[in-house]
Amino acid sequence: MKVKLLIIVNLILLSIIIFMGVHIYEDNQKMNGELEKMNTADQADHCLENPIDPQFAQALSNAHVMIQYRQIQQLYYDTWIAQYNDIMKKIRKKCIYDEDIADYNLFINEMEKGFDKLQPCILNEILDNYQISESPQKDSWGNGTQEILLLYRGTMYRNACMFFIPFLEKSEYTFPVKEVEESLSKITKGI
After folding, report:
1. Which end of the chain has less Cβ packing within 10 Å, N or C?
2. What is this structure's pTM?
3. What is the Cα–Cα distance from 36 to 45, expressed in whole angstroms?
């Protein structure tokens, strides 16, 4: 009798454990689905797809002569500095409190000085392995270094743009995809 009672109690406990396991599994599946929806929604709200950089990446990888490569680097800088100036004017209009205006001005000043502070470090990395037998010293002229620096500076302005674009309404800003495409086409066809 004790054995039958123990078997029945064990079967009941086993059934309860299985039931609880199935219930917990279903809850986890629901929770995973909700988390996936939240992550997707969060990405849609906070992650921007940048349609300009892929155009430049393709153009740079297809450049066959150095002058074309340098023109693309120059265009990259010119494009992002123009976007930065446009976006920052719109952000400035949104600053109504003195504290916001002070933070805005601080950001603008740091952006202007920031690259100059970073340039020695960037130059050190760019020129680290640059050796010419007749000039053993590092040389930042005549080897494309200035255009590479423009590309890095353009990247700095690009990053600032990508940071501030989410603070603008969708009607306030669109990426200049067609303009970039036309400019890159002129460069690639011009040579």
Report:
1. N
2. 0.68
3. 14
